[in-house]
Write a structure and sequence with these properties.
2 copies of one chain form a homodimer.
Chain A lengths: L17 H4 L1 H12 L4 E2 H8 L3 H13 L3 E8 L2 E8 L1 H26 L1
Antiparallel strand pairs in A: 1-3, 2-3
Chain lengths: 113, 113
């Protein structure tokens, strides 16, 4: 048997999209989801506890999937990067969160028994 | 600045232990958490939608951390493997789940605004 039998694979959690499930990206998406006016590169770095390199790498991955938007500008003659969540990113992230809630429900049901 | 400033790193989600956050292991732990009489290797494989190799690898990782217990025996003259969650595994998994609930709360709060 292949390991992809979704009918019986109750705990495969196929809705947990790996693009959001990775911990750093989960942080970035939560930060951008909750800050609809966007966040600067430095704010994101601090809020998510990431290094420059790590944040850059994950921003690129999310951008390539059209989940976030990156705006480059100049502030006080210095280059500034600002990130925003896209509508697609928002919709897909809400779906991911719904799946995460289902995972928790499985466990909570057992805890209450 | 190093990326490890936890005071301001609101979205670093440091409580999301990588041992549980990996999707396959999240499935295995949820399955074992909700089946306190343990599960056979084959049941786990089916429930989590994993291949033999993948399941073996993740079982070893969880076992090395004393989060699950692996019992080898013979059934009808064939070797049989059965896995159980340990008390440590149960406690740590509940902590992980609590952190996961906090992540969701951040997003839900925003959704209701």
């Amino acid at each position: 048997m292949k390991g992809d039998n979704t009918n019986t694979a109750k705990y495969a959690f196929s809705g947990l999209d790996r693009i959001f499930h990775e911990k750093a990206r989960l942080g970035i998406m939560t930060a951008l989801f909750t800050n609809e006016k966007g966040l600067s590169f430095n704010d994101l770095k601090e809020l998510c506890g990431l290094t420059d390199g790590n944040l850059s790498r994950h921003i690129q991955i999310l951008k390539d999937e059209n989940l976030i938007l990156v705006e480059k500008s100049f502030e006080n003659n210095r280059p500034a990067t600002r990130c925003f969540i896209t509508d697609t990113g928002r919709d897909k992230f809400v779906n991911y969160m719904n799946e995460l809630e289902n995972v928790i429900k499985n466990v909570n049901k057992k805890l209450k028994n």
